[in-house]
Amino acid sequence: MMNMVLFLTKFLSFIMLMFSDISNSDDRSTSQSHVNIVILGSSTAEGAGATKLENSWVFKLEHELKILNNSCRVVNFGKSGYSTFHILPNEQFFSGRPNPDKERNITKALSLNPTMVIINMPSNDAAYGFSNVEQLRNYRTLIELLKNRNIDYLICSPQPRNFKEIATRQRQFTLVELMRKEFDRHFVDVWSGLTNEEFGLKNSYNSGDGIHLNDDGHHYIFQQVFARIK
Q1: Which of 55, 58, 179, 187 is 20 to 30 A from 27 via CA?
Q2: Is residue 9 part of a domain?
Q3: Exposure string (b/e) for 89-127, b if CB count within 10 Å is 16 or more?
Q4: More confident residue, 10 or 92
Q5: How far apart are CA 167 and CA 82, in angstroms?
Q6: Residue 28 maps to a domain
Q7: How far are the Cα atoms of 57, 59, 87, 218 from residue 207, in angstroms, in the given order?
Q8: Which domain holds residue 139?
Q9: CATH number, position 189
Q10: 230 pLDDT band (50/70/90 cuts)?
Q11: How far apart are the first and last CA of the chain?
């Protein structure tokens, strides 16, 4: 009789432990399932130029996605002044170039197990004098990591900026065409709608500094990104 009681006690303890592990696993899964989209970017992603945060393209995107699915969450790592070098993985360093920001880069984004990563790097690389070759190499590094994890992604084109040198503006346009060809269906063209005939920023989208977008410019980016996600 004692052996039977001991057996039943151990068996019930095992069953309780098993269901406890399953419950904990479900809790972990649920806590991460709401992290759907991570934004990697610079000042435009952060909301610069918009009259208020609610008018920024990232805020608008999250608002509209929540209408479709209330559990949807957008995590925004955009930071003013950042370049493609800032968002590289933790271990990726280049002499004379910015180091990755471990709190706002691709490594941090991947740690959140997102379903999609959106990259929005408008013009800082060009402003710092970083070449198109460097930028494309950095994008390829990011994409390889995302592909390895089967995470979907979108890459926004550069934005026009009123650089003093026409050669810099033309180099931006060349980068747009290279990205369009290489990244194909993952490419979001915001350049074409924002640029003027001199490869600068259209007055109608200029917040006033020739760099950042006003409310209409942010709305335009939101429309292009949202259409691709839908």
Answers
A1: 58
A2: no
A3: beebeeeebbebbeebbbbbbbebebeebbbbbbbbbbe
A4: 92
A5: 22
A6: no
A7: 14, 18, 26, 10
A8: 35-229
A9: 3.40.50.1110
A10: confident
A11: 65
Phi-psi region of 153 (alpha: psi -120 to 50; beta: other; left: phi over 0): beta
Indicate whether 15 pLDDT > 80: no
- Which amino acid is located at 33 in the chain? S
Residue 26: CB atoms within 10 Å? 10
Contact between residue 77 and residue 39 where contact means Cβ atoms under 8 Å apart = yes
Phi, psi of 20 (to 5 degrees): -65, -40
Give residue-wise pLDDT tens across range 157-215. 999 999 999 999 999 999 999 999 999 999 999 999 999 999 999 999 999 999 999 99
Helix (H, G, I), strand (E, B) or coil at 38: strand
Nearest to 56 by CA among 213, 218, 216, 164: 218
Residue identified by tokens 């419950």 is: 23
Rounded Cα gap, residues 216 and 219, in angstroms: 5
Residue 25 lies in a domain: no
149 vs 19, residue with greater confidence: 149
* pLDDT, mean of residues 56-80: 95
Sole residue written with tokens 């280049």: 94
Q: What is the pLDDT of residue 35?
A: 59
Sheet holding 152-156, edge to edge: 74-76, 37-41, 116-120, 152-156, 187-188
Q: How far apart are CA 24 and CA 160, in angstroms?
A: 49
